[in-house]
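Training component of the fellowship. As part of building independent skills, the fellow (R.M.) carried out the full modelling exercise for a liganded target. The chosen ligand was nickel (II) ion. The inputs are recorded below so that the supervisory panel can assess the work.
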Amino acid sequence: MKRPILIHPDPRLKKTAPAITDLSDDLRALADDMLETMYAAPGIGLAAPQVGVDTRLIVMDCIKEDGAAPRPMAMFNPEIIAQSDDLNIYDEGCLSIPDIYAEVERPAEVTVRWIDPTGTERQQDFDGLWATCVQHEIDHLNGILFIDYLKPLKRQLITRKMVKLKKDRAREKA
Ligand code: NI
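Fellow's submitted model of the complex:
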């Protein structure tokens, strides 16, 4: 089931989500819903707070080549346990900040540990777009948006645009 995506600014996007202590079927179903929502958007990553659920779950699939098999990943309690000194710049976007893109610099490689949907602890190194995406999504679990890395003036400008977008959407619905 697709779920509505919260648009910035929203206090639910600025919270630190609590860790998952019990991997329930409800949480597995949430992961499925989030993947469906992400693919439909379309996007390459989504974090639970973006669908209004205050928990440490992210999903992603950064396979971009046409015709390539999808590689959906769902990560419960993801944690960055190592990062490279090398940095990488990507033009980032976010499903909670539609149609806005800006360059963000992050570690080029990260090692992430997480619990997969079967309850197994996993660990993997990520680079390229995957590294940027997993860092962006884990940021969401800590109430951090990619625009928080931009200069205050630019961030304010984007926030004002989003406030207007939300007003326009609310008016269309009315
Ligand atoms: Ni995002």
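The panel noted the following from the submitted structure. The first helix runs from residue 25 to 40. The helical segments are 25-40, 128-141, 152-173.
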